[in-house]
Amino acid sequence: MNSPRPSTPPGARSRQNNLVHTLSLRYLLIVPILLAIATAIVLFQHSDTNIYMLYSQCHARSRIPWLSHIPLLGTPSCFLVSFFGEAAASLRSSAILSVIFSFLAGLLTVSTVEAARICNAPSILIAYPTGLWLIFDLIGGAFVWELIIIPAFFHRSREIITSRRQDLPTSDIPPADPTFGETMRHLTKTSETIAIPFAVALGFVAPSILMLAHTSPVTVLLWLFFPLWTALFRQSARKLTTLSLVRLNGSWQESLHLESSTLGLVRVYLLPIFCSVASHIFLLWSLSQSDDRKEMTRSTLKFITIDAFFVGLTVLYWILVEAGWRVAAVMVLTSVILGPGAGICLGWIYREAMLNLTGAAGSGVTVVAVGADPRRRGSGSEAGEETPLLR
Is 387 within 8 Å of 21 (Cβ atoms)? Predict the structure, then answer.
């Protein structure tokens, strides 16, 4: 006989009724697919002969000879480098790109944080994002977020929800279980709070500043491979912390609920928020200057701006589905005031605060599995379908 269902804690029902809990995966993916179709239509409508001419010049080997003459990869490589080089060829366009890059810095930070969480370890697409970021940067653009990355997160969320709706074995669940464990939303190691900002700073922010400050084929080519640099610097930082900091304090090897650590939050999110505010100020200042963009710069920058806009819409939908309209509103409001990079970071922090229903400063997220609670089996109290998944 089933035990009586416990009452839902105040505020939990609204979180439980988020779209990710109430809709199946096929319905959740309708909006990303529509956004991908809209992206293709808008990009096609705003295409012009300048883009085709740029590719034609690379195909004719008249641009960047040392790159365009490489067999097979020369023409597309030359086109990509020329495309972003032309987009950053003026003061106004550099200011606009700085805002877009700050948004990408925030998104890269969030993506890397999610990759480091215990709960996302079973998902290869989430836990190892370097390949998808490379495809996003070199080929796919917004389509990668609309058709691969966001569906991967929705699929993982639905996997967790489906598992919790099934009865669990009677044995106790390990705390680090990626689906039911109490530390499932923790970072795998505390040292990630150093490795992630270090990787984003040297792997993405530094190449971005270099490219905007001195636009050349070499700096653009260096920037294009920022996902590789970010991954390499993150791995290096984790090894360095293991060799040095762990010897001083073993807690660096322990898991950490990031949102329960103020110092950890500052270390991880301070850089993208600062870059966002700085780029926001830079853009506002550039608007008081004369517009120095040439025709080719306008054409290429328009493509990048449209692509970034649809990535932003996709991320906004992601937050709306998983955390509700309040978190989405916070992200939009802070993006307007402090820039989109700060918006995604502060919105993500608020998202985790909304998911952590206990609000415990040191314990982080406590998971309640639908069907059984390993911590209460001895008392005869079991969770039911009305019990919140996170509390």
Answer: no
Helix (H, G, I), strand (E, B) or coil at 276: helix
Q: In whole angstroms, what is the distance from residue 108 CA to residue 206 CA?
A: 14
How is the chain split among helix, strand and coil, in percent rounded to 5? 70, 0, 30
* Phi, psi dihedrals of residue 100, rounded to the nearest 5°: -65, -40
- Comparison of pLDDT for 382 and 61, the residue scoring more: 61
Residue range 292-311, pLDDT digits in tens: 999 999 999 999 999 999 99
DSSP code at position 324? -
User: How far is CA 310 from each of CA 32, 100, 186, 349, rounded to the nearest angstrom?
Assistant: 10, 12, 30, 22
First to last CA, the chain: 25
Report in angstroms the alpha-carbon separations of 299 from 48, 88, 128.
7, 11, 33
Strand partners, 390: 367
Residue ranges of the domains in the chain?
Answer: 12-45+88-379, 48-87
